[in-house]
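Course assignment 3, question 2. Fill in each field.
Student: A.L.
Task: Predict the tertiary structure for the chain below.
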Amino acid sequence: SVQGGDAVWEGLRVEEGAVLELEAHLDRLRDSAKALMFDRVPSHDHIKGALWETLEANGMRDQVHVRLTLTRGAKVTSGMSPTVNQSGPCLIVLAEWKSVTDSSGNPVSALKPQRLITSAIRRNTCS
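Answer field:
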């Protein structure tokens, strides 16, 4: 599923033992998965458990970037149809040490909020 691009993801920041805006990230991940008609999307509690387990196992409390990826799951054959995914979604928690930098790669001492938008335009829709 990951290689075929059949997944949704969120990038998280961990600073001073806290995941910034965690609930908003989990809401977006869940909304994205539902928009792509994922079956059996894990609960927020399940995802939080996997996230904290990963961070604790690696002693990560500060200056960490986490990519939460939710794939549609193992396929029974190739193809992008949701019908070939019969095992349910697969959650991947990938954490890495990464300080905050500006666009030139220089360390930044404070996080600045960024304004993002989500496009309502869908590509490759059935007509």
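Instructor remarks: The helical segments are 22-35, 44-57. The chain has a mean pLDDT of 87.
Grade: pending
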